[in-house]
Amino acid sequence: MTSLSELELVQRVYDRIAAAATDEQLEAELLRYLAPVINKLSSTQDAVRNTIVEMLGHVNRRVKDHHHIQLPVEALLDQFSSDVSAFVVNFSLVYIKMGFPRLDDNKQVELLPKLLSSLENKSSHLQDSLLRLLLPVLGLVKCSDALTSPLMSLREKPHIAKILLDYMQDILLLPYGATPRTREELLQRLQHQQQRQETLREEREQRQLNQPGGADEQDDEEEEEESNENLVPVPAVPAGMSIVSFRRAIGDHPLKPDDLETLKKTVIKFLDTEILTPSSMAHALMIATSDTRFTVADAADSLLRRMDGTIEWNSSPVISAMYVLFLGTLTPIERGPVERFKNPANTRIRLKLMPCFLKSREAANYSPLAVKVFCECLWGSHTNNRLKQQGITFLHHVSFSASTEKLKPVGSLLFSGVVKIIEEEKNNAKLTSLAYGALAKLSLKLPNLLLSHQHQLHYLMTLMDALSHEVGDVLLAIQEALSMVAPVCKQLTPASQDTLCIMLSEHVQSDNPALRRTAVHYAATVFSRTHCASRFIMLLATGDSEDDVRLEATRELYKSSGGDDSNSTPKFESPGFLPMLRFIVQRINDIPRSRWRDVATTSMPYTLKVMEELLLYLQHCLAVESGSNSTEAGGNSLSAVSSFKEGALMWPNCTAVGRFVEQTLGREEDGQDDPFAEYLRISEMAANAWSASAVEAIVRLVAVAPTTLARYYTDRMDWIRRFLVRGGHAGQVAALLYGIVAGQISDLSKFEHSIQLIRHHKEQRMESQECFILAMGHSLAFAQHRIKHDNDVIMEDRWLFFDNVVCGLVVQLVNSEGGTLLPSLVVAVGEVARHVPLPIPVFHDPPHPTWVPSSLLPDSSSHSAASQEQCEAQSASASETNTAAVAAAESSSVEMLSKIEEKPTVAAAERSEAKNIVKPTTAATTTAVAATKKEPKPGSLVNVVEILQHVYENNKLSSKIREQAIQSAGYLCVGDQHMHFKPAVMESLLELSKQSDEMEIHFSVGAALSDCVLGAQSVSSRNLWTQNDPNKEESDNKTSVAVADGTGAA
User: PANTHER family this protein is in (predicted)?
Assistant: First the structure.
């Protein structure tokens, strides 16, 4: 087309537009010709361009005030997006801006994709114009249509989406009522601020040169003044914005506050359509949640909470955007374009950003930026108490989530900051509590920080000292911090560990429960389980008045190291018995007598509870070192101490302990103190305060090595007798100790003297009498066992003293009638019967009515001597009288015992020596018995079996007494393997097992039947303390070898 025809064409269009008489005609002409006419502005002919400009001026005059006239916006958008000259693009944009607001809402929404596509490859000025145009329309997009909308293509065009989001963020950051400023004005203010900072810096440097030691207060005031003036790097620009973003957001005509609020709500509404990805919207929503208008902040907060699970908080774009918003442009302002330098966020925005940082584990690995965030929160210009707390919480997050390699370069800086907070914020309890927690977590992540001071324990001692003067939440925080850093102290040097141990030994006796609690935790955590001093610290804590301190100390002392597998065998570690004993003895000797405590009728260095725990732990060490520290109970492995606490008296493996004691004594050089004598001395301290646990400790040691240790008490039987008189559990245990010691007395006269000390006990209380009876039974049993197994002892004649004492016990037993002494009599007679046959006749002629023991009939003291003489005479001739009766008794013992249950009175029945059939009671004899006192039963084997059977078949008695009677019935067949009533006893026990549903009774019956069958070959015939089960001898021998080689000790 020639230039003349082109001009004519443009003129003809101009005439048609000018000739349009009505608005409708004008609109029709514009829809048809406006876009092509603007396109002709690219013509090279000046006349054409001038004509078009004149025509566009005419159009502007006619259209400007007539907003109902539509313009060809869609055609103009297509032309704007095409590759045309800048002249055409600019004029197209003018009429797009004029025509787009005239479209109805549906048409505007329809054209949104084209508007967004037009942003591509355009200058920032053109983009800002279009964005300002389309932003109000975004709120018209309906959520229901969002998924099918062409706008979803934004997810495939991230660069366009970023342009849109950046502009949205600038709008959301724009304050209400912001004053527009020109670019030149903003740059001028920035330059003035920089000059002011440089002047102040030079003056401060000069003053420091002239007055190096003074003017500190003046410097602080000037620094504060400078910081107040320099709240942001770029003055007059809102937080989070640069000069460029501020200018583009506010424009030439700033919005009114209400209009800006509406625009921000429009942005939130568009973001709610989820056209954009959640991660890309996170930054804008974080800004919106900090808005000062509630409607905007609430809508954004609700949307952010709803989308929280779908945002990729660990993605690099999200993390970088958060750091840039919080800190501003990360490049120093001197090194980058000043106009694009973004100011840091204000306090309101930072408070909303901090929870988002905590959601991102990866954000903690941005170590330099994390340090800047921490410092800004604590000491920045835009901070407050709440932001300080969030800053320390962020440090918790960094310490927990950051990798060690990333955190190492900045660890010391963060640690110093935390220490500074603790020192400066003492009046802020919440902040101080958080700081202590942060210090602990940092120390766990980087252990060298806690020990970095030239005095390794400096920070640790500071924390422990704080326990004594802090209260409330701060105290709890310090306790938690100390608990967390305890494993770090394992890296202390040996010298520092010794210093720590001394400090803990002082703290565990402090009046402050927190210090005692911490001392126990550190003693258990820092030191190995074979460390004597730390174990002693926990032993002192076992007597603490606080339950949690006492329980933790006890748990840590006896905790196994078997691992988490419940099926694995637990392994116990402890110091060696001798080192631990020597350490305890040394600590006791270090305490002056004037500081000992009065307990009961004696004095001791520590409380009775602590003394008992010292003894218990020494027994634990002895069990571990000797290889006797576990036993199977109910399918679970039970340590020796645990079994002791549940009531067990014997070691899990007594013979192993006995061998260890003998070997230890054999290794001790002449002139050295006997270590076990020291152990017994400590035990006696507690025993003098009537401690049953201490008496048990003595028994457990003396019983396993009686030949070497019983000598300590041979001449002190009166001391043991004190416990018998007192009675109770301690008296019952002392009865066993009395028997063990008396049983080792080889001189019969001395032995008989020891029995005489406890034989006459009628004037004592019932509890004391029980203990005396038990002591007699144990003494006789141990003596007979020693005589039986001592080849050097030959008894040429019968031991009448033994026979007399046993006969007296039997008489008391068969006439006890279920009295208080019945349990002790059953045990005493059973213990004797376990080793030797009872020196009593099998049968007995009906005794004279006057033969009554004084213990049963107090009024018949004149008959006591006669009955005793008769018993002695019968026991002396028992072997001759029994021989004739044995043949008849063996054939009918079962029938006889079945008739014993009828329990006829002695005066109403006579024995048939041939058949042993008990005759029925006659009326005459019944009347005679009723008229007189009940006749006492003679001390014969028949009567013993009868009373035992009566006890264990009586369901009204306690299970414990019945079990003892069953056990004693079995023991009758152990000491006398030809016991005449063995079949009857076995049948009676079998019948009992059918009638009883108690599991303990069934176990006792099984053991008793085993004793009856095996007789002298039963394991019950041995000394349970010193003789091992033959079936276990092989395994015990292996253990003994290991202990001798030193491999069995922990």
Answer: PROTEASOME ADAPTER AND SCAFFOLD PROTEIN ECM29, TRANSLATIONAL ACTIVATOR GCN1-RELATED
